[in-house]
Design goal:
Layout lengths: L15 H18 L2 H10 L4 H7 L22 H14 L1 H20 L2 H14 L3 E4 L15 E7 L2 E15 L6 E8 L2 E7 L6 E3 L13 E12 L11 H7 L1 H29 L1 E2 L2 E2 L4 H30 L9 H25 L11 H8 L9 H18 L3 H16 L5 H21 L5 H28 L13 H30 L9 H4 L2 H6 L4 H12 L5
Parallel strand pairs: 1-4
Antiparallel strand pairs: 2-3, 3-7, 4-5, 6-7, 8-9
Helix pairs in contact: 1-4, 4-5, 4-8, 5-7, 5-8, 8-9, 8-10, 8-11, 9-10, 9-15, 9-16, 9-19, 10-11, 10-12, 10-15, 12-15, 13-14, 14-15, 14-16, 15-16, 16-19
The structure holds flavin-adenine dinucleotide.
Flavin-adenine dinucleotide (FAD) binds next to strand 1, strand 3 and helix 12.
Length: about 575
């Protein structure tokens, strides 16, 4: 991707005022409907507050209107709006957010695949009547590998014409499965996997009891059993069999952004509690917030990772809203955003428990619940390992197609950016881009990606490198005074620059050290790896760490609103 994408114009969705209204409406609604004591009680009792889920999708809040186009009675929000609202919901309760997400997900095959008549019928129903959807893809033996699905859709014919289908099979781990008004079901029709919109009250459709889960216990998750469930042909999405996997693929860039926003919201919610706690907890004669060994281990690194993820999310959302995401074109970027944000969210929530000491380990302090809740985000909508594979495979192709220039070109652009705007860490991000180019080439020459572990480690390192690049672009736009109009504005441009510099150092160090480790670890013993370290500019990468502690100090000062 070129630096031209730092251009912050956003063309789709709500205007800034409308989005701001929506964000505070969501916050007010959930704060009133679900105060902390009720959340903890529902979590303890493992109960989905169906009344609140339905109220959120009714006139009382109308959150579902966000993702329905205006022509079907919705507000026509774009990807950026959806990210901001998803983060907001996740800050309050990830279980509730998951219930809302399930309607988003359930209606996604409709967006990409349905006929105009079907869209009018189904999307208007969601907008006007607040229908709650579930998304039925996963099966007991088909999770990451959806192609292994076994649920079948058998044609029912009358006078030689297909009038409907009988669906038989089992779906596993379906969010809203026990409460939905409609469920989109992926089933194997004679011409291939196909999506159907199914009314769960149809004969033969049985919803199992809710799962007893580790986290997001306010969200209903259930297995579904379908035994000859009749679906009229009008309810086959798009009217043509065999489009199901393509339709599922087409929306990943977008849906994974939503889960990325969940990781971000969950992580920040936990971290903000730790930040607040550390200002009042006195140990060793001073608040914990004044202990550098505390803040620089338990707070600052997580701020960097979360904000790097935010940059990846915002950049991808902006591009989707510009229309660049057609036919799954931004699936890799969506995967990077999801991978980074959900892994960062998990680590941040874990650190928040540590930051609360013994209190963090009890239910009362909420971080324990957030940690359990946010855990799901690295699993659903594609596990982290599947994200690593998706990212690595795509960028591997780009490396080959461009004859090794894919990341070198980005390194050159970042160096040019550094010349104009030296304070955002662009030269360090350039080193990371160059290191990725060197690593991919070493893997090509040594045929190392035949080891799946090496391929997946590349996926991880690419995600780190590309997020650092996105963060550099984001902070550079902020320093230039042209941030994306709907960007989160918590940090000043100066702090964003410090965050960006510090994360670029962490990313380049991670890419270089881990990359060298696995290239050496996978190469045949005695292989001459030549000038790998030199090509990677390892000395420059180490030298770029100068100033890291000062930037950590600056980020801590900004978080605690201290003047340094
Ligand atoms: C609470 C919850 C809610 C959910 N909601 C929904 C929903 O609404 N709709 C829906 O359709 N699904 C839903 N899911 C399912 C979810 O998307 C799947 O659980 C997920 O995709 C993983 O599939 P799986 O559980 O079968 O694990 P598997 O695919 O069996 O994976 C097990 C482990 O193996 C790894 N792995 C898998 N394949 C490979 C490979 N090729 N190489 C290396 N490692 C691999 C995975 O990363 C994972 O660590 C939900 C799940 C949960 C737990």
């Amino acid at each position: 991707m070129s630096l031209a994408h730092a251009d912050s114009s956003q063309t789709a969705g709500l205007d800034v005022e409308m989005l701001t209204m929506m964000l505070s409406a969501v916050a007010d609604f959930v704060t009133n409907a679900l105060p902390p004591e009720r959340q903890l009680q529902l979590d303890h009792e493992d109960v989905c507050p169906e009344d609140i889920v339905r109220a959120m999708c009714s006139d009382q809040l109308g959150v579902q209107l966000l993702f329905i186009p205006e022509q079907y009675g919705g507000m026509g929000g774009g990807a950026f709006d959806v990210y901001r609202v998803c983060e907001q919901m996740a800050r309050h309760d990830l279980g509730l957010a998951t219930s809302v997400l399930a309607t988003f997900l359930g209606s996604d095959p409709i967006f990409v695949g349905a006929t105009d008549e079907q869209k009018t019928r189904w999307l208007t129903q969601i907008a006007e009547q607040g229908f709650v959807y579930a998304y039925g893809a996963t099966e007991p033996e088909a999770g990451s590998d959806l192609g292994a699905l076994k649920t079948t859709a058998t044609r029912v014919e009358e006078d030689g014409k297909v009038v409907g289908y009988k669906i038989t099979g089992r779906k596993q781990w379906i969010s809203n499965g026990g409460i939905s008004d409609r469920t989109t079901i992926l089933a194997l029709a004679p011409d291939g996997p196909t999506w159907f919109v199914v009314d769960p009250t149809t004969a033969g459709f049985v919803r199992n009891k809710p799962e007893d889960k580790h986290g997001i216990r306010l969200s209903n998750t259930a297995a579904l059993f379908l035994d000859d469930v009749y679906v009229p042909v009008e309810d086959l999405i798009g009217g043509v069999e065999g489009q199901g996997l393509v339709q599922a693929q087409q929306v990943f860039g977008y849906t994974r952004l939503m889960v990325a926003a969940f990781g971000l919201g969950g992580g920040w919610s936990a971290l903000d509690r730790a930040i607040e706690y550390s200002t009042t907890r006195i140990q060793g004669g001073a608040p914990l917030s004044e202990k550098q060994g505390y803040t620089h281990k338990l707070i600052v690194p997580h701020v960097l990772r979360l904000e790097a993820s935010r940059a990846a999310i915002e950049e991808t959302a902006t591009r989707i809203d510009r229309g660049e995401g057609e036919n799954g074109a931004l699936n890799t970027e969506g995967a990077i955003a999801k991978y980074m944000a959900t892994e960062a969210g998990n680590l941040a929530a874990d650190a928040a428990i540590q930051a609360h000491g013994g209190y963090g380990y009890t239910r009362e302090y909420m971080v324990e619940k957030i940690k359990r809740d946010v855990r799901i985000t690295t699993i659903y909508e594609g596990t982290s390992e599947i994200m690593e594979m998706t990212i690595a495979r795509d960028r591997w192709q780009q490396h080959l197609k461009s004859r090794g220039e894919y990341y070198r070109e980005q390194a050159r652009e970042l160096d040019a950016l550094h010349a104009r705007r030296p304070e955002v860490g662009a030269s360090t991000a350039a080193l990371a881009a160059n290191a990725l180019a060197v690593l991919l080439e070493a893997c090509r020459v040594g045929r190392l990606t035949r080891n799946q572990h090496v391929l997946l480690r590349l996926g991880e390192l690419i995600a780190w490198g590309e997020s650092a690049i996105s963060l550099v672009r984001r902070s550079s736009a902020a320093v230039d005074g042209i941030p994306a109009p709907k960007a989160d504005g918590r940090f000043t441009p100066d702090t964003q620059a410090a965050i960006s510099r510090a994360f670029a150092r962490e990313a380049v160090q991670h890419v270089a050290e881990q990359g060298l480790r696995w290239v050496r670890g996978a190469a045949e013993p005695g292989t001459d790896l030549g000038s790998l370290e030199q090509d990677m500019h390892l000395d420059a990468i180490r030298a770029a760490q100068a100033g890291l502690l000062a930037d950590y100090d600056a980020v801590a000062d900004a978080i605690y609103k201290r003047t340094s």
